[in-house]
Write a structure and sequence with these properties.
By secondary structure, this protein is α+β, with helices and mostly antiparallel strands. It contains 2 helices and 4 strands; from the N terminus they run αββββα.
């Protein structure tokens, strides 16, 4: 069967290309969110390790990064109390173990969100693949129509 160029609607191809661009933007957005979550998860794991280490060693001196690769050696006044930012610039004082539990719970939440993001990315990639196949099919129809095959 011969496909004619008339069977390929350029507006449909343009619309499909717009969908493909939107899907690419969604994937990029989800990827950035995933990176932010992963960075926060890593920071939380590091904080847990530090808090556990302070509690176990009883060492009252730590290195405090101040930026640019510089750190200060500082003494901790109270190893059992930790100031914790719980959001919206609200800081509360909690026991060391309570903060560890809080951070572990946050890590669990972040991992669940990361899984949801992964599923969303897979769905969008699947949709983008479908649109790309439709665009390719339209171009092939166009080429067959032009060559008279």
């Amino acid at each position: 069967m011969v496909n004619n160029v008339e069977n390929v609607d350029p507006r449909e191809v343009q619309m499909l290309q717009q969908y493909l661009n939107e899907y690419s933007q969604q994937i990029e957005y989800y990827s950035r969110q995933f990176e932010v979550l992963e960075q926060r998860r890593i920071e939380s794991l590091a904080a847990i390790d530090t808090l556990k280490s302070l509690d176990e060693t009883g060492n009252d001196a730590v290195l405090l990064p101040v930026g640019g690769g510089a750190s200060l050696r500082v003494k901790i006044l109270d190893q059992k109390k930790v100031l914790l930012n719980i959001g919206s610039d609200v800081v509360v004082e909690r026991e060391n173990n309570d903060v560890i539990t809080y951070l572990q719970d946050r890590i669990t939440e972040m991992e669940a969100i990361e899984k949801k993001l992964s599923v969303s990315v897979e769905q969008v990639q699947k949709q983008a693949g479908e649109v790309a196949r439709r665009i390719d099919s339209a171009y092939q129809q166009s080429q067959h129509g032009q060559t008279g095959l």
